[in-house]
Amino acid sequence: MKDVDISVDNIYKLDGKIPLSKAIPFGLQHILAMFVANIAPIIIVGNACGLGTKQSAMLIQSAMIIAGIGTLIQLFPIWRIGSGLPIVMGISFTFVSILCYLGSVYDYNTVIGAVLIGGIIEGFLGLFAKFWIKIITPIVASSVVTAIGFSLLSVGASSFGGGSGSDTFGSLSNWILGTITLLCCIIFNIFARGYKKQLSVLFGLAVGYIVAICMGMVDFSSIQNTSLIAFPKLVPFRPEFNANAILSVTLIFLVSATETIGDTSALASSGLGRDVTVRETSGSIACDGFISAVSSVLGCIPITSFSQNVGLVAMTHVVNRFAIGAGAIIMILAGIFPVFGAILATLPDAVLGGCTIMMFGTIVVSGLQMISKCGYTQRNITIAALSLSIGIGFTQVPEIFAVFPQVVQNVFAQNCVAVVFLVSVVLSLVLPEEV
Description:
Layout: H1 2-9, H2 20-48, H3 53-75, E1 89-91, H4 96-105, H5 108-127, H6 138-160, H7 172-191, H8 200-214, H9 243-272, H10 278-297, E2 303-305, H11 307-316, H12 321-336, H13 338-344, H14 349-374, H15 378-396, H16 406-412, H17 416-430
Antiparallel strand pairs: 1-2
Helix pairs in contact: 2-3, 2-4, 2-12, 3-10, 3-12, 4-5, 5-9, 5-10, 6-9, 6-14, 6-15, 6-17, 7-8, 7-14, 8-14, 9-10, 9-11, 11-14, 12-13, 15-17
């Protein structure tokens, strides 16, 4: 019995040894928490670029495989690429706006060329992060983490309502489904004992999915014509290189790097109870960049660390690399066996929203806790307050950026994390230590 107890406790340890029977459910919980968000950017960008149904389906398959590979490299670094932390990777929402614009003006081949070059640039920036990471002071990272949490609240609310653009958005059925899922998460967390308490999100997803089936809200039609097994194609789109597209996408990669810094800092703080190291941050950014370049080779768009999974770690404190690695392998298998992925893709948005709304709030709280650890000096209060008020406030009214060039609007107009980062870095550099 003692060995079993030690094994169960190891889910809260980074390198603890746990049996496969414990690794799979915790890993699956992480995958279910990000699955829909991982394929949504592909669908949006694919539609904007005029891709056909078969092409979009192929990219969804590649998205799942590259997300699994990226997660494994973050967990178990190769050379200096990867952080060694329990970071889950997925297709980035940050690039959706600029890629939709570039895809409509040029074509998807130009998008792939820009992603390839931009990813390589971010990867090398990550390898040499020790030379510039000092400008990312603790108060800057704390402000960025808080902004990430706030930026995701609307994503969780949108899912809760049934998914943005849905014909039934905000309907009574979505309210009922989202509320049941949320209540199941809360009730399970209250009454479960020991390590099982940390499976509250998985329990909520399972119950919500069953209720959705009973309510007739799950569409299984997409599974009928799905092949049993399929492997991704290498270079399905021939990269084309356009200077304007490369510049625009590279700027967004810099924004993505700031989000990765914030996610990595938040995970170390909330999951491991310590500050992140320069080595971990450097490896995390390098993984973001280089795996995004690999993603383009598979015809897919950039990959990044997933904030919702940082929130899940903050809520459950399950940081075991082998458990999350099991989830990454499940994701790769889901890509190789499209039927499995097609089944997971039928998960209604309202169910996902019921689970994630609390997780995203946890990221906000983690950011506020990080700000508190920095100390409430007048200088820190000024940096955090001004960067958050400008970043969140201005992006609520994106028309305020109309005076700026289109490239600037694409980067900042609806990306509060980018604005918060820019303002907090500038203030951190110009404000004297004694304010």
